[in-house]
Amino acid sequence: MASGSGWGRLPEGLLHSILDYMVPIDGRIKFSAVCSQWRRVAWEHCRELGSKHTHQLPLLMVPTPDNSKVRRSLYSVTRKTLCRSQLSVPYNKRCCGSSHGWLITVDDSFVVTLFNPFSGKIISFPPLRRLESEKRLLRQYAELDSLEYRKQVMEEFSSSEREEEDEEEEQEINQEDEGEINDAEEEETEGVPEYMKGADIVSESDYSIWKAVLSVDPDLKPSDYVLMVIYGVQKRLAFIQSVDKDWTYISKRSCYTQDIRRPAVSIADIKYSKGMFYALNERGGLLSCDVSGSLRVKMVTPNDMSFSLKRKLYLGESAGGDLLRVISLRDEKYRTIEFEVHGLGDGDSDGCDRAKWNQVESLGDAALFLGGNHSITIQASDYHGCQPNSIYFSDNHPEFLAVRVRDVLELYYLQWAPYNIGVFNLEDGKFAQHYVLDPSQRLMPPPIWILPTLM
């Protein structure tokens, strides 16, 4: 609706009064879409409240009912329904993260882009050039059978840290599950177009950014934010500041200078908390990365577990802002069967000066939202229908194929394990579903949590 219409001339005081009664974010999204005047008032209203989206309830971005490639629906877990508003999304770019209301995407040239689906704003970064050095090797992997490919990739990035007994355990697991995984792959790839078999197929790792997290919303601090990513076969760390012209890579050398025996590889998750990035590796160890000046990397907790495909690790925060380690445990078919939550405690009395993880029995009134997004914590009592002491998760295991057909790049997502979307209650240890994907959506990008913004 044009800003010159009668709606755009309504008194701002009246508009603020209307917004006071709009708790669901989709109502505010519709409000801000009326005209530029209403959008500005909506943004100012949120800023005055000091809660632009710090305490906003995340929405689950899911495929539209018609499986559009250029639009996504939003699902509200509290109202258990799809919002009427749909978002436009980039086509032929892989989404590798959601942070502060922005989607982080990467293309086949390793160019990283921030896209705000609520405002349409775009911020582009230089390509991750170190991924180029992996490309030749990864293309060789891509020619292998998909199961063997996964095994070799896992071997590549974990061989430097995996102990002999862990390797033997991993081989036993793979032998037991090989038939089930093959069956799952055969079932899930039904419906893939025939022309894919002869097309120029690019492996998943050609786009190998595993996760991306912003320090702050670029709309709030356009010249003072940092983007950190987990990239490459070895799952290393890189970051770029808003004013930088290239990426900074946290390498073996930078870690050795900080008395870290093992380099920062096999990173499972990253989190920005209290002015600093933290990285959790797949053996449970926590690193702090101070990027505010000269790069300083410090080992906060030692590794305390072996590598396992049956675990997925996340970094979260308590309601009070303390770091949490969340472990998703899986069964033989890679279905999530349990969550464990650990909080940071002091070192042992035997002289160890490093912190350690201690199990947390309750999250209190907090609810965590975990997945491909930066982890989000909210007070459940602020939102009717939100379950306290719970973990809302979208924990998926897709691989995707980038297929060139007549010079057009198409992305297909192949789900080799079940979609894990649900909510886990720490008090009773029970799972519940909140959104169920239609089988027709199995080739679509997996759902991801996103914080709504009104910029």
Automatic annotation (TrEMBL):
Pfam families in UniProt: Beta-prop_KIB1-4 (PF03478), F-box (PF00646)
Signal peptide: none
Species, as recorded: Vitis rotundifolia
Taxonomy, superkingdom: Eukaryota
Matching Gene3D superfamilies: 1.20.1280.50
Domain KIB1-4 beta-propeller: 74-425
Ranges of Acidic residues composition bias in the record: 162-191
Domain F-box: 7-41
Name of the featured protein: F-box protein
Location of region: Disordered: 155-195
